[in-house]
Please model this.
Amino acid sequence: MNYHMRRSDREIQDADSKEAIIKNGKYAIMALCKDNEPYIVTLSYGYDAATRSLYFHGAKEGLKLDFLKANPRVCATIIEDQGYIFGECSHAYRTVVIRGEMEFLENDAERVKGIEVMINHFEKDPAKMMAKVHPGTGTWTNTVMMRLTITEITGKERKKS
Ligand SMILES: Cc1cc2nc3c(=O)[nH]c(=O)nc-3n(C[C@H](O)[C@H](O)[C@H](O)COP(=O)(O)OP(=O)(O)OC[C@H]3O[C@@H](n4cnc5c(N)ncnc54)[C@H](O)[C@@H]3O)c2cc1C
Model:
């Protein structure tokens, strides 16, 4: 995209800081589009730093899947909310906006990898949770796994003054 941030003083330039927002985040709010119709949906994710990918899971049917199957292009935001700034009519935050294409993961090895990434992202005791989710269980067979590889990322920060 050929747009530059108007408030360039608020742009987060370095890759590590942008990645930290993703690592600290728990869910992404993502914009989808089909037939010129927008849809926005919030999904929990796990982040895999090695491949710069976010993994998602969800039910096997529903509106977001119909959108993603028709058009896998996604624009999503992850927000680190640092609170309203009283007396300034403003809000402190760090955010990223990411763009990429969502892929549906079909083979078991990729799906297991996705689950592992999500569980490692969220759980204090990943091994205990991992033991509950594996091929053959209902949680497994009724779930779709998806991966969003980041093709573009921007970051912005509004500090408390
Ligand atoms: C913090 C957070 C984390 C979440 N994590 C996951 C996750 O990991 N996986 C997952 O599948 N879902 C997650 N959800 C729920 C998700 O936002 C959707 O509600 C859900 O995925 C169903 O979406 P769908 O398009 O299949 O809706 P459908 O069941 O097909 O329903 C579509 C209709 O319901 C409305 N709708 C759908 N979701 C919402 C909503 N959240 N609020 C208000 N109206 C809604 C739509 O506007 C539309 O009219 C999370 C939600 C939150 C807030």
Q: What stands out?
A: The two ends are 31 Å apart (CA to CA). The chain is about 25% helix and 45% strand. The CA atoms of residues 132 and 138 lie 10 Å apart. Strands lie at 11-12, 27-34, 37-44, 46-48, 53-59, 73-85, 90-104, 143-158.
